[in-house]
């Protein structure tokens, strides 16, 4: 396996969410922000319902590298996509930081305007661990193990 990336779906707030993440992690969007109106016709999708005009300027795809081997990617869910978007706790993004200070800074920024689920604190497996939900409903865990070893 070369790498694992995280793909996030939003209800029309992808651009705001990714600008928020870029303000925290830095970097640039790979290839910019691609809008649905920029997508070329795709084979196998001829039978899909037409997209609403007001959805064409929503985000079709965006990628933000957050480490050398991890990229956050996302799209807006639009009316012609199968399934229904349900924001919830069905996944969490876990960041293993290089220091307790980095965990504190990232936790503070990610939880601002959101909700703290578990305050950043010492646990049996980590010098610092905390969980929060950002303002866009994405669940995050911040973990700095330090000299501790995760239980197996």
TrEMBL record:
<dbReference type="InterPro" id="IPR029068">
    <property type="entry name" value="Glyas_Bleomycin-R_OHBP_Dase"/>
</dbReference>
<dbReference type="InterPro" id="IPR004360">
    <property type="entry name" value="Glyas_Fos-R_dOase_dom"/>
</dbReference>
<protein>
    <submittedName>
        <fullName>PhnB protein</fullName>
    </submittedName>
</protein>
<dbReference type="InterPro" id="IPR028973">
    <property type="entry name" value="PhnB-like"/>
</dbReference>
<feature type="domain" description="Glyoxalase/fosfomycin resistance/dioxygenase">
    <location>
        <begin position="13"/>
        <end position="142"/>
    </location>
</feature>
<dbReference type="Pfam" id="PF00903">
    <property type="entry name" value="Glyoxalase"/>
</dbReference>
